[in-house]
Write a structure and sequence with these properties.
By secondary structure, the chain is α/β, with parallel strands linked by helices. It has one domain: Aconitase, domain 4 (Alpha-Beta Barrel), CATH 3.20.19. It is 33% helix and 18% strand. It is globular and about 55 Å long. The protein starts with a strand and ends with a helix.
Length: 174
């Protein structure tokens, strides 16, 4: 995870549920390359075709509400979303996103700062998000250290994999 993340912004409204991120009819898909073709089909129909790796999603309140399906952040990760920023998140969606290594930031007042196509600059450790077009910014509370560690490792699976490798190497050296 980079300390500073910059990317083109896509905006979402309030109460965007997981079915609007990836429709339930695609839950049998396990191939990330196939899954990403359908991300935001309902909420942002043009997203799957036009999104670029590193793009940033900025949303209003309650992003990721509804069912707790992990497919929603998996589809976002597959398409290369650089970060997700919202006024508030559904808790399970927030944690699923972090576990998959997607920087996920809750920042009050953020949605009002951005229009589609703006460039956002997120300073992870400083806790600031800036619209580079307008210069306006908002602060967000520091992300807890244990969640930053997950993001830096690339997600929960990667963190566990690295820890197992470290233990294996230590056992071999003994």
């Amino acid at each position: 995870m980079k300390d500073v993340i910059e990317g083109r912004v896509w905006v979402l409204g309030k109460d965007v549920d997981t079915d609007q991120i990836i429709s339930g009819k695609y839950l049998t898909i396990i191939d990330p390359n196939e899954l990403k073709k359908h991300v935001f089909e309902i909420a942002l129909p043009e997203f799957a075709q036009q999104a670029q790796p590193g793009d940033i999603l900025v949303a209003d309140e309650n992003l990721g509400c509804g069912s707790s399906r992990e497919h929603a952040p998996q589809a976002m990760r597959a398409i290369g979303v650089g970060a997700v920023v919202a006024e508030t998140f559904a808790r399970i969606f927030y944690r699923n996103s972090i576990n998959l290594g997607i920087p996920t930031i809750e920042a009050r007042g953020v949605r009002a700062l951005f229009e589609k196509g703006d460039i956002a600059r997120i300073e992870m450790r400083a806790g600031r998000i800036t619209n580079l077009r307008t210069g306006q910014s908002v602060s967000f509370p520091p992300i807890p250290h244990h969640l930053l560690e997950l993001l830096e490792a690339g997600g929960l699976v990667e963190k566990v994999r690295a820890e197992l490798e470290r233990q294996k190497a230590a056992a071999g050296a003994a």
